[in-house]
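Let us begin with a simple case.
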Amino acid sequence: MRESERGSPLGEERVTEVNGFLCKGKARDTRERVGAAGFFVHHDGAAERQAERDLLEEALRANESEAGGIPQALRDEAAELFRSVRR
C-alpha cells in the first residue's frame, strides 16, 4: 500500500491518498450502488466509521480495565431489554 499526503483544496485539513486493494466484486457492487463519483465518498465514510469503532473499542477497554467489567446479571438484564424492544 502506498500513501501520499497533500493539502486539501477544501481547507486546512490534510488529505491522504491511499492506494490499496479491494476485491473486484466489492468494488463493482459499490460502484453499481453509489456510482463512480460516489465510490470514494462511500469508502472514505466506511474508513471513518471503522476508525470511530476502533477508538470506541479502545476507550471501552480502558474504562473496563479501570472500573472493572459489567456484572453478568446486568448484561443479561440489558440483553433482555434490548430483545423486548426489538419485538
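The second case is a distinct protein. As before, the sequence precedes its C-alpha cells.
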Amino acid sequence: MKILNTISPVFLLLIASILSFYFLSCKSDDGELLYDNNLTPVILNGYNVSNDNLTVKFDTTTLGNIDPNAKFAVRRLFTFDNLSDVSKLTILNQKNNEIILEKIIPNKEPKITYNFFYLDGKFQDIPQKSDITPGKIKLKYLFRPLLTNTNKPLDIVFGKFYFTSKKFVELKRYSNLKPYELSEDITLDTLGNFEVYNGIRQIVQLKAYLYHAGTSEFYTKENGFNWPPATTIPVPSINVVSSKLYIFSEKPTGENISFNKNLEL
C-alpha cells in the first residue's frame, strides 16, 4: 500500500503527459500549435453591439452567452465524425430564442475560424481602425442615437477644453456624421496637457461635441436635453499617439445628455 501511494502521483503525472502529447503535439515553425488529426480547433470571435443577450451554439454544443455591448471569444477542440462534412454555427436572441444567424461551416479544414459583428439587429463585417501615425490621433466613430432617435446628419466638433476656465475652443470639425454609419478617418494632432489661457496655466482636455450639421447648435436642444460644457462623446487622451474606433450611444443624466461607450477598438 505504501508503494502504491508513492507511485500514484508519478503515475498520474505520466498519464497526463501522455494525454497532453496525444492531443497537442509540438509547435510548428510559425508558433502555431499542431493538433491531433482527430481534433479540430474552432475559434470564434465577435462583438455584440446591441441591447440583446445572445447565445452561441456550434452544432449541439452551447459555446457561451454574450452580454449586451460585449466581446465574445472562444476557442474549443472538436472531434467530427465522418457522417457530415459540415457543421452549423447558430446565434440566438435569448429574449425570444429566435435564431438570428445560422452559418454552415465546412468541418474538414485543419482549423475553423469565424468572426462576426452584430449591430442592432444586423450582422456586418467587423469595422477596422486606422494604423498608428506618429504624432497623430486617428479616430473613427459610429453613433447609435437610441434615446433621441435622431436621423439627421451631425457634425463632430473637436476642441481643447480648458479645465479651470471651463472654456471650449474648437480645433477641428468632421461634417455630416450619419447615425448608424461608420465615419471616415479623423486625424488630430497630439497636444500637451497644460496650456496658459487667460493668463492661467491650466489643464487641457480633448472634448468632442455633436452639433446640427453646419451649425454651432447642440443637436440635443430640440430633444429637451442640456449639454454641459464638460460633456463629450468618447475621446482618447490629448497627449498620446493613438488610433481608436468608438461605437457609442446616448443616455440621460437627469435633464442632461451623456454617452455610453458601447465598444472601443
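DSSP finds one helix and 18 strands in the chain. The longest helix spans residues 2-23.
Keep these points in mind for the review questions at the end of the chapter.
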